[in-house]
Amino acid sequence: MKLIQALKLLSRPKQLLKIKNSKSSDSGSPFVKSYKDLMKGGKPTADFTDAEMLNLIWETIPEAITALLPPPLKPASRPLVFAFIADDPSTNFGVPYKESALLVRASYKDQEGFYCLSMPVTDDMAMAGGREGWGYPKKMANISFSREGDTVTGYTERHGIKFMQVKARLSGRLNNDNAALDEILALGINPDGEFSDKSYMFKHSPSPMKGGIFDYPPLLVEGVTRFRPKTFMWAEAEIELTPSEYDPWHAVPVKRMLGGFYSVGDNSMLHSRVLQKVNELEFLPYAFLKWEFDQNRP
User: Fold this and answer.
1) 2 lies in a domain?
2) Can you tell me the distance from the alpha carbon of 167 to that of 154, in angstroms, rounded to the nearest whole number?
3) Do the domain assignments include residue 17?
4) Closest C-alpha to 289, from 242, 243, 249, 240
5) CA–CA dist 12, 16 (Å, integer)
6) Residue-wise pLDDT tens digits, 81-119
């Protein structure tokens, strides 16, 4: 339980006593959780064991990133794009699944991180938890990810379109004879693959009321994920981005592929923090990463 929640309970002794005396499954209905069960189920982090990942980094055109960033995010010092495809076979929240993601380098008050544009997943609970908890723009998808020898391949597919297809050779080197090694290490990725990744998301909920926009002012959220690989290899990587109306990853084209890296290890998503509220009308044009409003769709 978070510290602020515990402090609130101290000011409510009757509620605290009720929680202390509660028993597992004493709510009277399988639809209702007891306080004891809720206390037992809380996790300080979301942990992934033996997660297998292929990460790719490329440089895109500056205008592409500028057009994608909602205020108050601003372009980072370099127009970089980060994408991955992963297999998460074991988690501490009981959900094994595959996922992929597209993120662009962005800055908030001179602090650089990655703004998450898309995060397809193969499990509904993984989708709900990421969207409702952190604000990740998750959607259900078909994802393939495999390794044969020193070759790793994968794709993400929705609506019959494989809008991203990746292939990498685990050569121990990056693209163009390791030309971008220093650039990738400058992002905070250690030579052994260990690093912490700061991500920016916007958490928001559409209003059910006529004329309403959002239930509450959209929140800019910062999340941190720590990667601790047990297996790590630099890779020469390539990605094919096929145009899709619903998953327009091609909007951040590859100008120069820096390279990629393959890893198998233990990762942890730490609790996020809200950086600020954002203006509803300013954010509205950027609010459709999680939904597809097309009444003509078959």
Assistant:
1) no
2) 7
3) no
4) 249
5) 6
6) 999 999 999 999 889 999 999 999 999 999 999 999 999
Residue at 12 is within a domain? no
Q: Please write the tens of the pLDDT for every residue from 140-191.
A: 999 999 999 999 999 999 999 999 999 999 999 999 999 999 999 999 999 9
273 — alpha (psi -120 to 50), left (phi > 0) or beta?
beta
Cα–Cα dist 52/198, whole Å: 20
Q: Is the peptide bond before 72 cis (omega within 30 degrees of 0)?
A: yes
Q: Does an H or E element contain 63, and which?
A: helix 62-68
Q: pTM for this one?
A: 0.89
Domain that holds residue 124: 42-286
What is the DSSP code (8-state) at residue 125? H
Q: What stretch of H or E contains 115? A: strand 111-121
Q: Domain with 114 in it: what CATH number?
A: 2.40.400.10
- SS3 (DSSP) at 106: strand
**CA dist., res. 156 & res. 166, Å (int):** 9
Instruction: With respect to residue 15, please indicate whether it lies within any of the assigned structural domains.
Output: no
Q: How far is CA 104 from the centre of its chain?
A: 12
Q: Among 66, 76, 62, 64, which Cα is nearest to 188's?
A: 76
CB 68 within 8 A of CB 117: yes
Question: Would you state the structure tokens that stand for residue 149, as one six-digit string?
Answer: 């020898």
Report the domain count for the chain: 1
* End-to-end CA, the chain: 45
- Alpha helix positions (H), 100-214: 124-129, 175-178, 181-185
Burial 114-148 (b: 16+ CB within 10 A, else e): bbbbbbbbbbeebbebbbeebbbbbbebebebebe
